[in-house]
Amino acid sequence: MAAAARAWAALSAALAGRTEAAAAAFLETVAGEGAVADFGVGPEIPAAARRILAHHLVRQRDAVAESDVAPDCMFTRFGGLFLLLPTAGFDDIAEAVAGWTVAPDPRCAALIGYAVLGLCAGRVSIAAWLADPLWRELFGLSLWDPPIALAEQLSAIPSQGWDTLEALADGLASTRDARFLLPPRTLVESRAARRTLARLASAILTRFARRLVGFSASSAPFLWHNLLAVPAAVERVGSCWQARLGRPPLDVLVSLSRLAEGTVSLPSGATVRLTRAPP
Q1: DSSP string over 114-149
Q2: Which pLDDT score, from 0 to 100, does residue 110 have?
Q3: What's the pTM?
Q4: How many domains does the chain contain in total?
Q5: Do 87 and 211 contact (CB within 8 A), yes or no?
């Protein structure tokens, strides 16, 4: 049994950290009883134990295959953040990252934009944001990476990269905004990185507020709690998505500005058509 446990640990370690496609391919290779025997599972493990290992791997393989089929409709508590996408500045972030000598990851720009948009909901919501599968898919990020893996990828960005991005950012207008937007150390430890992420989020919210007559000086917490903190039901329609947003407390502002209507795009190339829930 000890040998079987060691074999299972070895197989699990080989699976950890793989992308969806790589995990599926790996499990397809080793799911059979004979293949399990070839994967370091020697004759000291009884045939019954090898069959159990193979059975569990088949179940994991099937779970991966099922997860690759995206549901037709998904729900997100961060529906209001769709309103920020037209002026989010993701293209500027991508252009800045493209100028780096070495980018830590090919999806680095999308990851930064993803973290910045999530911070517009406030630092206390960042853990829930990182666990939201819909937004990961819309940004073209892996659905399998745990939140700590995303934090490690952000931490791998060199300080020179954050210095470049800071040129795109706004200053934090108040202590209240700083307390709301400054990310926790669990997301990224570098003080420069945390400051830059908060300022980039502030810039997005500032551009959004300027589209609302009379509310250009609104604080980040005010914008979130009164205009952006609404859920959305998001449905896949062909190659696009359709999002039906809830109504915020100050719905009249959204109605007058027509911000919750039209089509928005994301770094992955996904397009989302926005509509509002009926009154």
Answers
A1: HHHHHHTT-GGGHHHHHT-HHHHHHTT--SSS-HHH
A2: 93
A3: 0.74
A4: 2
A5: yes
The pLDDT assigned to 29 comes to 54
Q: How many residues does the chain have?
A: 279
Domain that holds residue 49: 2-67
Give yes or no: residues 40 and 82 share one domain: no
Say whether both 92 and 116 belong to one domain.
yes
Q: Where are the beta strands (DSSP E) in the chain?
A: 73-76, 232-237, 240-245, 262-265, 271-276
C-alpha distances (whole Å) from 19 to each of 64, 144, 206 are 10, 7, 36
271-276 and 262-265 beta bridge pairing? antiparallel
Nearest to 224 by CA among 77, 75, 74: 77
Q: Are residues 127 and 24 in the same domain?
A: no
Candidates 105, 115, 157, 106; CA nearest to 136 is 115
Same domain, 162 and 243: yes
pLDDT of residue 139: 93
